[in-house]
C-alpha cells in the first residue's frame, strides 16, 4: 500500500480505535487525526494535511455527506472513503455525488478496509462486495450527467429523519440524536411529507417500511 496520512471521522470512539489498530499495521500508513463529527473534521483538515479521509455518513452536527462536499471543494486531492451501515442504493448515490472515492459497509471493515484503502489510493473506485461490480461506473455516469437517483427524492438528512421517525422516535429525541433543533426536525418532517405526498405520520411510517428505511439500523 502507498504511504498515506489518514484521518478518521466517526462518532463512535471504539470504532475509530479499531480502525486505527487495523490500518496502522501497514508500513507507511499513519493516522494523523480522529474526530467525532463533520465540523471537527473540517477544522482538523484546515491545519492537518491528509491523503485519505475515512468518514461515517451519519454523524452529529454535520453529516458525512455535507462534510465530503466541503472537503472535495476545498481539498480536491484528498481521497474520501465512506464507512456506513446503510445498504440502500440512494446512500451510494449521495456518497458519490458528494465526491466519494469509495463506500465500505461497517460490517466489512475488518475484512475489506485495507483493500478499500489500497484501491482508492491507486485511483480506482471501491464498493463493498455486496454491491454489484459495475455500480461505481453507473453512479459515476449519473453524477457526471447530473441525473437524480430513481426514487431518491430525499436529502441524506431527510432520510436520517425519516428512518428515526419510522423507529417511533419523537421530534425532540431525533433533535438530540442529530444535534439539531426541534424546529429543524419539524421542518424536515414537513418537507418529507410534502415531497412524498404523505398526509399523516402513519402514511410516513408505512412508506419508510415499504421502502426499506427501517432495515438500515
TrEMBL record:
InterPro entries: CheY-like_superfamily, NreC/VraR/RcsB-like_REC, Sig_transdc_resp-reg_C-effctor, Sig_transdc_resp-reg_receiver, Tscrpt_reg_LuxR_C, WalR-like, WH-like_DNA-bd_sf. Keywords: DNA-binding, Phosphoprotein. Residues 147-212 form the HTH luxR-type domain. Pfam families: GerE, Response_reg. Transmembrane segments: none annotated. One of its GO terms (biological process) is regulation of DNA-templated transcription. The modification 4-aspartylphosphate is found at residue 56. One of its GO terms (molecular function) is DNA binding. CDD domains: LuxR_C_like, REC_NarL-like. Residues 5-121 form the Response regulatory domain. This is Two component transcriptional regulator (LuxR family protein). It comes from Desulforapulum autotrophicum (strain ATCC 43914 / DSM 3382 / VKM B-1955 / HRM2) (Desulfobacterium autotrophicum).
Amino acid at each position: 500500500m502507498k504511504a498515506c496520512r489518514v484521518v478518521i471521522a466517526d462518532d463512535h470512539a471504539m470504532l475509530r480505535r479499531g480502525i486505527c489498530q487495523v490500518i496502522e499495521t501497514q508500513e507507511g500508513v499513519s493516522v494523523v487525526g480522529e474526530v467525532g463529527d463533520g465540523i471537527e473534521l473540517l477544522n482538523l483538515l484546515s491545519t492537518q494535511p491528509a491523503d485519505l479521509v475515512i468518514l461515517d455518513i451519519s454523524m452529529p452536527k454535520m453529516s458525512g455527506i455535507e462534510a465530503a462536499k466541503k472537503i472535495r471543494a476545498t481539498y480536491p486531492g484528498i481521497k474520501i472513503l465512506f464507512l456506513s451501515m446503510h445498504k440502500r442504493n440512494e446512500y451510494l448515490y449521495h456518497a458519490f455525488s458528494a465526491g466519494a472515492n469509495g463506500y465500505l459497509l461497517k460490517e466489512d471493515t475488518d475484512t475489506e478496509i485495507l483493500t478499500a484503502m489500497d484501491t482508492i489510493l491507486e485511483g480506482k473506485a471501491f464498493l463493498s462486495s455486496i454491491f454489484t461490480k459495475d455500480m461505481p461506473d453507473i453512479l459515476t455516469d449519473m453524477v457526471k450527467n447530473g441525473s437524480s437517483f430513481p426514487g431518491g427524492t430525499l436529502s441524506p438528512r431527510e432520510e436520517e429523519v425519516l428512518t428515526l421517525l419510522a423507529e417511533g422516535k419523537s421530534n425532540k429525541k431525533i433533535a438530540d440524536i442529530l444535534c439539531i433543533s426541534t424546529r429543524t426536525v419539524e421542518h424536515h418532517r414537513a418537507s418529507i411529507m410534502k415531497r412524498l405526498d404523505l398526509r399523516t405520520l402513519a402514511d410516513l411510517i408505512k412508506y419508510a417500511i415499504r421502502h426499506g428505511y427501517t432495515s438500515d439500523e
